[in-house]
Amino acid sequence: MTEYSQKLLADVKAKNPSEPEFHQAVEEVLESLDLVLQKHPEYRSAKILERMVEPERVIMFRVPWQDDQGNIQINRGFRIEMNSAIGPYKGGLRFHPSVNLGILKFLAFEQVFKNSLTTLPMGGGKGGSDFDPKGKSDNEVMRFCQSFMTELFRHIGPNTDVPAGDIGVGGREIGFLFGQYKRLKNEFTGVLTGKGLNWGGSLIRPEATGYGATYFAQSMLQTKGQDFAGKRVAISGFGNVAWGAALKVTELGGKVVTISGPDGFVYDEAGIAGEKIDYMLKLRASGNDRVKDYADEFKVPFHAGKRPWITKVDVAMPCATQNEIWEEDAKELVKNGCLCVCEGANMPTTMEALKVFQEAGILFSPGKASNAGGVATSGLEMSQNSMRYNWSTQEVDQKLHTIMKDIHDTCLNTAAMYGTPGNYVNGANIAGFLKVANSMLDQGLV
Ligand code: NDP
Ligand code: 2IT
Q: Would you tell me which CATH number, out of the four given (3.40.50.10860, 3.10.580.10, 3.40.50.10490, 3.40.1790.10), belongs to the domain 57-188?
């Protein structure tokens, strides 16, 4: 890293203590951007990076709600409005007990680059709460969502900030949040994405992140003259992204042999396909946070407390959460002949693990490129809402596929242009940065 970037990173750490995930996300981007800043001093003199690491606005609020026993519960709610240079703030809401300011700032920061890569006009944001949906009744989730939106509604809008789902926020939660927004504003607008099909949602949005990641991996494999046919694939997580990836990998002829949860991972040599993929939806909806139920249901091995990366596979798709591939996992994957790692989750690979993949020269895509299909399809949902019109499954899937192919090619071409061919991390960071940075320059000191 150049001296300039080192100082910037040190300042970010000093100014934002106790936010290790945010530091990590900034460091990864700075490493790539050194290549750009050397060629373009105008970004330095306009302090574009110094501005980009500072959110435009952070909203933090109390979320009081009552549980089924009548006890009062207090959670913390957040919305990070990171960057609006290229469009309204856009990004998901995460409900998980681990949620804090630093995690949401890392996610919002990543979102700025990701949304820029989608080619659609969306700025970056992220939000959520430390609310734990595990074991909560539908009524409790509804009361929580209504209370959360009772504060959030005044900060968002279809042309201002458009939230969506993330970990712990799926169709049910988006429904409760949308209902409360509509009641408070007396407006039916596309203020959230991931809506139900009957009330403004887009076909393919539930599948989009996993489908998009698989299309991206397919493009990466094609650069080596390969495809998914006959490939063994390890997926982690068992939520929305893991489910979509399992569907598309199977459709393209690959064999998904693992899924995982906080309790361990399932190994299914026969392949997770058909009704077994449908079963993932049941697992997720059960709210139990357990993947072992799959092993019991289909009588396959379960590895308690282990991550799936010890399995011999051709392709790894981490789809659970941040920092779930560690250095030793990366070494194991490489040793076992894995040729492609495609991130479905946000920042699932630690910096140390990333170095292992890069030194081994295997195909590696950062989440901000390969999981962009989710937010891209959210962008398509916004377009449909604005037109008051719905595209068919084929139309949305086709657009998603084209967008993922474009993101892939942009990353590859940009990486080559900046002298690091095949480095998708550099390609994604640089291409994502340039569009936002140039827009900021155009718009003056904001
Ligand atoms: P879901 O809530 O549907 O699923 C999350 C999955 O990850 C669950 O299996 C969850 O188990 C598991 N998980 C969460 N924390 C841990 C942990 N500490 N250890 C092991 N497993 C864990 O979320 P999504 O599928 O929507 O999100 C998964 C990832 O994809 C996240 O990184 C998210 O930011 C990212 N992403 C999501 C997009 C979307 O459109 N939904 C778009 C782009 C990226 P549990 O929660 O039960 O602990
Ligand atoms: O991380 C992400 O890109 C998401 N959770 C999806 C965001 C969105 O607005 O659809």
A: 3.40.50.10860
